[in-house]
Amino acid sequence: MADDYDLDSGPDPATLAAAAPEDPDAARPVYAVGIGPGNLDYLTPRGERAIREADVVVGFETVVEFVADRTDADLLTCGYRDESETLATFAERVASGERGAAVLMGDPNHSGYQFVGKVQRTVDAPVRVVPGISSLQVAASRARTPMEDTTFVTLHKSGDLSADRERLRRAVGERHLLVLPRPYDVMPGDAAADLLESGAAPDLTAIVYERLTHDDEARTATTLAGLADHAGGDGADGTPFSDLSVLVVRRD
């Protein structure tokens, strides 16, 4: 197992995940599979095959639950507290010759590289990413904000967010914004308030999509100023929005 890391001082495991291209000829890779936004109609055939053919699957409990019926593999679930221990067990299984798959929500390329990096640090095997359909892509489709005209920033990660928030401040009003909030300390209202403080126009259209593609999908359309009224909450009870939220700010 790799050395411990501290996200506030480095190294960020996402940096490791992005350090070099994949080796296309690597034998018996561990797959890091994006399962989509939770509705399995959006799980790609290639992702489903990687999960189905695995002997052992690892991921956060809420993610693994979505694909449990799509595989006969042993399922290793974790939370943040036992993540390192669970990944160590997964690595041992892979080292013994079993085929492994790690599962992530959405598409690993949008907001999953910290977990991909943790898997890569732990297993003694190449890791190959299987892209998925992200809730961000669904939100962009719903809001009609094409990606080529949009600045995407994920705040849904550990560590310092200063550089990410500065990217949003520079782009607001010039480009559409597509934001993954961080539950529950940087939620849509907090992001909106930060943009207003940086000088963004208060009447810009702001849309929060929740639980995209699920039966209880919800949409809140307002202005940046209206959304900022929900800033400053503390925990799940301090915001009207769920932890499965995507924020869109149109450039109007």
TrEMBL record:
- One Pfam family from the record: TP_methylase
Which Gene Ontology BP annotations are present? cobalamin biosynthetic process; methylation
What is the protein name given in its UniProt record? Cobalt-precorrin-7 (C(5))-methyltransferase
In terms of InterPro entries, this protein maps to: 4pyrrol_Mease, 4pyrrol_Methylase_sf, 4pyrrole_Mease_sub1, CbiE, Cobalamin_biosynth_MTase
Tell me the ranges covered by the Tetrapyrrole methylase domain, including all copies: 30-227
Q: Which domain of life is it from?
A: Archaea
Q: Which SUPFAM superfamilies match?
A: Tetrapyrrole methylase
Q: Where is this region: Disordered?
A: 1-23
Q: Which Gene3D superfamilies match?
A: Cobalt-precorrin-4 Transmethylase, Domain 1
**Pathway(s) of this molecule:** Cofactor biosynthesis; adenosylcobalamin biosynthesis
Q: Name one GO molecular function term.
A: protein methyltransferase activity
Q: Where is the composition biased (Low complexity)?
A: 11-21
The UniProt keywords, alphabetically, are: Cobalamin biosynthesis, Methyltransferase, S-adenosyl-L-methionine, Transferase
Keyword Transferase recorded: yes
